[in-house]
Amino acid sequence: MIESLLIANRGEIACRIIRTARALGIRTVAVYSDADANALHVRQADEAVHIGASPARESYLVGDRIVAAAKATGAQAIHPGYGFLSENADFAQAVLDAGLIWVGPNPDSIRAMGLKDAAKQRMIAAGVPVTPGYLGEDQSPERLKAEADSIGYPVLIKAVAGGGGKGMRRVDTAAEFADSLVSCQREAASSFGNTDVLIEKYILSPRHIEVQVFGDRHGNVVHLFERDCSLQRRHQKVIEEAPAPGMDAATRDAICAAAVKAAKAVDYVGAGTIEFIADASEGLRADRIWFMEMNTRLQVEHPVTEEITGQDLVEWQLRVASGEPLPKRQDELAINGWAMEARLYAEDPVTGFLPSTGTLDNFHLDDTVARIETGVRAGDTVSPFYDPMIAKLITKGTTRAEAMERLAFTCDSVLTWPVKNNAGFLAALLRRPEVFDASIDTGFIAKNLESLVVGVEMSDPLLEMGAINIFKQAGGTDVAIAPHKYDGELDDVWTDMLGFRMNAPANPLIWMLADGELRSSRIGSTRLGVGSLLWSNGNEILIVEKGWPHRFSAARSGGNLAGGAADGAILSPMPGRIIAVDVLAGDTVTKGQKLVTLEAMKMEHSLTAPFDGIVADLNAIEGEQVTEGTMLVRIEKDS
């Protein structure tokens, strides 16, 4: 067994790997950037090495520094986690060339499956069904558009080196193709250093089904059944579950057999995922499921597979890397129960899911019925340099309904303040009848986004009534509001919104901050006692509780997306790099027109015109780094 392990990653996946390594008696080494000097994975590891500046390209993506850190600390092996260098064949080879153990597949396997076009050609040769599309070497815009026209719209443009939803665009009409191609290639160049794309037929009722596979160095390959990852936004998974709802035994046998065949075709070793797209217009059928791609690494959603199989996949990785055979044979693996996972992001659904950065002054995740995987604690900082996912919430039940309700409960209980989160959106999604019935496809969120994201500002009267209701429900009877006496009649509007917070649905749990201390109150609780509301300014409430004054801040979020400012000033919503400026000073623009594209937290964010008008000021310069709040464009209404 490996005795010492360097983890070439950060955040929750680094913490996850450390946990299993520690259980196996393996010494762990963390690496960190400037931004992560005090990160949780650094604090949990036995040793930590600084590898560079905050941007990933100056730290976590510098393979030479990571290898050097392993050598300097005496680590025997490197585990790449997911993202960053996990699917970089050259890095894997460099690890092996340095005499270290690579916890992952052979570099040749990564290369074989790393480019989507070559991977599909190999799968065709292996007899694995693939989605119709164009995989050619001619990458001229004219040829690509001609192929898309021939396939028939809608089509999907996908970066051949892509992953994680990046470098991917759906195109519904021929008129959209040119702009979508440019945007896709630009994102692909930034994320993967490769602008080549392929074109696929877009399936109109698609389900995303993937199969977990595992191979060892003794020729054994098994599957650990399937996951359904159809609930996606912008091609990024939001909620995952295992097994896939509506999957009958015959279809499961067929898709899992195809996954094993795909893994064997590249002599696969370690953890991998074969991703399929299913045409679910008539339910899941073996003859309507096609290979999309293979991820040659551990997946973000691996915990749901662990929950239904009872296996620790990180332990499997470490044992296989140590030369051991797979811990289980295929006939020893079975599905037990149902598991679901939600990705908790530091983002504001009300403002178009704009990432939210800053210090987590308060951070609460309820682990009563959930497994929590996170890389942050209260007081940590959500950085603009990395992906905004701050935790994974995983629940298991004997039935799908039980797992789903437990996950919704866990989402309801999330609190991050002042950093915003998507927990309310997740809970709303889980409680949709279409999701409960599994009558969804990968476009469900996009089609229903408006009804899933509801933002309401709390006015002073609502705050006052809310505070009153908290104390009356807690048993208080003598509640006064300066400067007038409360008459005992509570407006129904607050009763209907009991438990309201901006990023969550109605919930009997109310969170507030009292002199820096996190407090909560449920109906019937006497935790907050009897109090008097002295004043409210819309953000804070001063209350006398048991004779002592306390200033409370409502744990809520809000605000407008930069680009929607009423005065026409378009501010940078976060630190980032300007990658495109689509207007010139003096240009006439229409409401919703794209003005500037900002790259931050590994994603592109388009800032648009808030109304029809003229570009009065333009301070955005392509390639420039900007800080949060920088005025980029100012639009004046055309008089």
From TrEMBL:
ATP-grasp domain segment(s): 120-322
Cofactor(s) in the UniProt record: biotin
GO molecular function, one term: ATP binding
CDD domains: biotinyl_domain (cd06850)
Domain Lipoyl-binding: from-to ranges: 559-636
Domain of life of the native organism: Bacteria
Record's keyword terms, sorted: ATP-binding, Biotin, Ligase, Nucleotide-binding, Transit peptide
InterPro entries, A to Z: ATP-grasp (IPR011761), BC-like_N (IPR005481), Biotin_BS (IPR001882), Biotin_carboxylase_complex (IPR050856), Biotin_carboxylation_dom (IPR011764), Biotin_COase_C (IPR005482), Biotin_lipoyl (IPR000089), CPAse_ATP-bd (IPR005479)
Domain Biotin carboxylation: start-end pairs: 1-450
Pfam families, alphabetized: Biotin_carb_C (PF02785), Biotin_carb_N (PF00289), Biotin_lipoyl (PF00364), CPSase_L_D2 (PF02786)
Protein name per UniProt: 3-methylcrotonyl-CoA carboxylase alpha subunit
Species whose genome carries this gene: Sphingomonas faeni
